[in-house]
Specification:
Blueprint (H helix, E strand, L loop, with lengths): L1 H34 L11 H18 L7 H16 L3 E4 L2 E4 L1 H13 L13 E6 L6 H14 L2 E4 L2 E4 L4 H11 L5 E6 L6 H6 L4
Antiparallel strand pairs: 1-2, 3-5, 3-6, 4-5
Length: 207
């Protein structure tokens, strides 16, 4: 029985490791697309041919830039991932280049958010990072998810739609805005002071 349980836990750990590895590869692929490192150099032929050339050029560039040797099996696997991202319309062909669709941008943001931890620096710079949002009532569920994520990251609530954190976190907030589709509804600010902030300093352990 113990052997069975041990094998189960090892299998679960292996699955989590594999999922994390796959997520890391997908993030690298999507970030390379964002970087715009590749395009179909020969523009003749059908749309399918152009996409195939852009994909081939991307893979050559992707493999060349890798800091570790890539086996044939892994190259095949990455090629299949790229095809899947194209077929799912996360990566699209625009003006001779492969680019991220809105769906692809959301997927990239989600993957990066999964492993994101906000930094707590040893020394506070004396400034607060304030998040203000005005999310419409028809997006109530998204608004609640946003609040939950901010609380999970360690933000403190000043008001229902005003949250504060003492350290730089603009990149994380930008990912949230992309993932939830709230680019116009969320505002990030850095402020020098907040009135009556002694309770904030105490809760954030800044003193």
């Amino acid at each position: 029985m113990r052997a069975h349980i041990l094998c189960y836990h090892i299998g679960m750990a292996s699955n989590r490791k594999n999922k994390k590895s796959v997520s890391g590869i997908i993030v690298n692929i999507l970030e390379t697309v964002v970087g715009g490192y590749f395009e179909a150099l020969t523009m003749g032929g059908s749309s399918e041919a152009k996409i195939a050339r852009a994909q081939a050029e991307f893979l050559n560039d992707f493999f060349r830039k890798s800091d570790k040797p890539i086996t044939k099996q892994k190259k095949y696997y990455i090629n299949q991932l790229v095809k899947k991202l194209i077929n799912s319309k996360e990566v699209v062909f625009v003006d001779g280049k492969l680019a991220l669709s809105q769906t692809g941008q959301k997927h990239l943001a989600q993957l990066k958010l999964n492993d994101l931890l906000l930094k707590k620096l040893p020394k506070w710079d004396g400034k607060y990072r304030v998040i203000i949002f005005d999310v419409p009532e028809n997006k109530r569920s998204i608004r609640n998810k946003l609040r939950f994520k901010l609380a999970e990251w360690g933000f403190l609530r000043l008001q229902n739609s005003v949250w504060v954190y003492p350290y730089e976190c603009q990149e994380a907030v930008s990912l949230l805005k992309i993932y939830f589709g709230l680019s116009r509804d969320v505002l990030y600010m850095t402020v020098d002071s907040i009135e009556n902030d002694q309770w904030l300093k105490k809760d954030f352990k800044l003193e």
